[in-house]
Amino acid sequence: MKRAVAVASVVALLAGAGTASGQTIAITNARIHTMAGPVIERGTVVIRDGYIAAVGAGVEVPAGARIIDAAGKVVTPGFIDSGTQLGLVEVGAVQGTVDSRVRDDRITAAFNPADGLDPQSSPVAVTRAEGITRAIVAPSPGASLIAGQAVLVDLGAETPMEMVRKSPAGMVAVLGERGSQLSGGARAAAILRLREVFEDVRDYMVNRRAFETASRREYSLSRLDLEALVPVARGEVPLILEVHRSSDILVALGLAKELRVRLVLAGVTEGWMVADEIAAAGVPVVINPLVNLPNSFQELGATLENAARLHAAGVTVAFASFDAHNSRNLKQAAGNAVAYGMPHDAALRAITVDAARVWGVDDRYGTIEVGKEADVVVWSGDPLELTTSVEHVIIRGREVSTDNRQKRLFERYRHIGGPMPTAYSN
Amino acid sequence: MHLRAWLWVLAAATTAGCASAASQTTSSAPSPRAEAAGTAEKASVFAADPFASTYQPLPSRTTLIRNATILTAAGPVLHNASLLMRDGRIVEVGTNVQAPADAVVIDATGKWVTPGVIDTHSHLGVYPAPGVDALADGNEMTAPNTAEVWAEHSVWPQDPQFALALAGGVTTMQILPGSANLFGGRGVTVKNVPARTVQEMKFPGAPHGLKMACGENPSRVYGSRGRSPMTGMGNVAGYREAWIRAQRYRDEWKRWAENGADPARMPQRNLQLETLAAVLEGEILVHNHCYRADELAVMVDLAKEFGYRISSFHHAVEAYKVRDILAREGICASMWADWWGFKMEAYDGILENIALVHEAGGCAIVHSDDASGIQRLNQEAAKVIRAAREAGMGIDYEDAIRWITINPAKALGIADRTGSLEPGKMADVVIWSGDPFSVYTRAEKVFIDGALVYDRNDPRLQPKSDFMVGNERKEVVS
């Protein structure tokens, strides 16, 4: 009980971080995908103090509100990319700018990348300008098959502290070929290692005092890692297992049941082959719907229809770019999922409300409903279409700049050949 | 003696000398087989191809596609139009085409037709799926100059990614070696048809490419081994040194030909210099991986110093900064729509890059360099259309279609044969389910040389590589 209160207060603290704008914004005449009911063909969204104050067809515009006339435009919740390294990388091949992995295997479960986040990094601004307002930031596997903790971030924040909205949002581990590599060379060794880890964590949970006085057996993990895994063992934080081969997926489902942990599957290239089993287990999946290459023997079943088939089987699907610089292509990925059979609404859900559900924040985010945090995007048309533009991005009630380094470079080089070098412009 | 003329003396001499001991190591005559097919380019000894194309078009029928929206890549969009193909060629394109009695007629109401998509930069077959070490054959990272290697000798025709690219409308691609080296080796242009051998895929008569690379890759790979090139300046010294040797090699053969081409005095062949000499003769086209504006400009001057042409820069993430130079020099730029930031030389990537190169009058190309991206080059072009429109640039579909068809054909030296829908050209054609620049559109039918080689609605016309046989996956029943 005491622990639950502590966790709740941490979450509350994070949720309350930052200052929401006091401005009132009314987006009028819009086609609104609330993601909480039918599309409103011509409606108004009122945003006040960072939250949705009203939404509907007959909503009045409050006096003094800033009005965004969205006639002919489309409004959606801000999109969520459910797997990124946003804020942890500036230039992929420049080591000093990459903070998404550790090679010290004493602390990999305890590794929480939040302390390395930089909201000023250029991929954050570039992604935000494309209507993606929140992201799961996840560590990549380093030296251990438990990579560390994923956090949910807000892409409109000014400071690393304000950026983090839920921490941890999950504990990342990897099975399959990579898990095998990190466990001595066999898939089953990775499973064995996870069993050992959770046996130790559960033993530690009830023998903390003995552990502190060194009168308990040795554990396979450091104290920090044990601590970090306690909320996973309690089911408060999901275990995110990256896994691709259909047989590995089935083994992962069985393992989660055995270990009594809450599971999120990530990658899941062959998920469609065992979609019914995933659905029956009530386990959500995080996938990139563009993955269709038989890139390894664990991905022979890769297909562009993966998203559609998982959805049709009743699996909760969230989409991820699993990238930083290309996170903005999440919309293209969702559009392709539609081209290959997923209903348009389901593809939108996979980057809004269903993603919020997977990460346990659907009570405050992911739909345009009264009381929800106001992440709202105004689009020139269908948000999944390649030729659609982003017109306004509002994060937690505040319209954020869609300016970024790339746009500045374009402006600088829009006209060349003048008398003075481009270095004298903007 | 005119250069062309002495080359023919040379070709004759090497053919005649086949029995002599001196020519045991040479096999430079043009392949009789390719000549018989009437497709071989007349090539100098340097560009002779012992691994000649054995490509044969698949069976085709006279086909009329009608009621389509057609982007020809050679003019304005045609509405409610028809396209007639016969014997592998495009016969007629327009709004008033009669169906011959023997024609298969395809009603393409609501659908769009474009030329087959062409990718100047692919590693299919040399970096195949599955991406296992045993099949990763694309980068001969053993020396900074490996101009002697040919990508086609690494191509695994059973790479299942060829079929996926076909489903994305890709009919022709250049397969290049990787970019670790200053000179990575020869690239090969192939028709995207299922085949047992790479020769069966080789685009008849297409010139070879030479992969060159600027920037971070060569200096990183070799600098980390404590050898040259370790820096950008080391890169340029490496190119210059190689071109000096290539000039001397070419001149040595030229003198030999001019002095009677005595088989007993034939110079020693050198595969590395042979490739470079063929570039100097204009018979192999340079494809130059190069990101940064300043490096692009240096490579332009380097080419002038040694008298060769650069056909296309590749990646060219900063092409927009020197688009005036590229346009003036007539050098194409093969670019991504939006890749950026993965390394320092890609840091200044902008969404308008391709549109700016196009607007400046340059030859803009969307390339993939990627087995996933090659399946959606039309979508990549669409992203550029959006960026250009937001920037207020006048970019139309008629412009954008060129970036993935005729412009890449030009860079590969095959624009007289394919890349646009004009009478007499190869019937390399895609029927799309709708607007090709929509995310929801898919290639429905793909024709190569008039043959229907892919049909999304007919599983019998969806090629499958040997690798996937028995490896098909289906739902697991538990």
Q: Can you walk through the features of this model?
A:
The complex is a heterodimer of chains A (426) and B (478). Chain A has 14 helices and 16 strands. Chain A is of the alpha/beta class and 426 residues long. In chain A, strand 2 and strand 3 form a beta hairpin. In chain A, helix 5 packs across helix 7. In chain A, 55% of the residues are buried. By secondary structure, chain B is an alpha/beta fold. In chain B, the strands form 2 sheets. In chain B, strands 1, 2, 3, 4, 5, 14, 15 and 16 form an 8-stranded mixed beta sheet that branches. In chain B, strands 6-7-8-9-10-11-12-13 form an 8-stranded mixed beta sheet. Chains A and B meet through helix 9, helix 11 and helix 14 of A and helix 10 of B.
Condensed summary:
Chain A is α/β, with parallel strands linked by helices and 426 residues long. Chain A has helices spanning 2-16, 122-128, 160-163, 176-181, 187-206, 208-212, 223-233, 246-259, 275-281, 306-312, 330-339, 344-349, 353-358, 405-413, and strands at 24-32, 40-48, 51-56, 66-69, 74-77, 79-84, 132-137, 146-154, 164-174, 239-243, 263-267, 285-287, 317-319, 376-379, 390-395, 398-399.
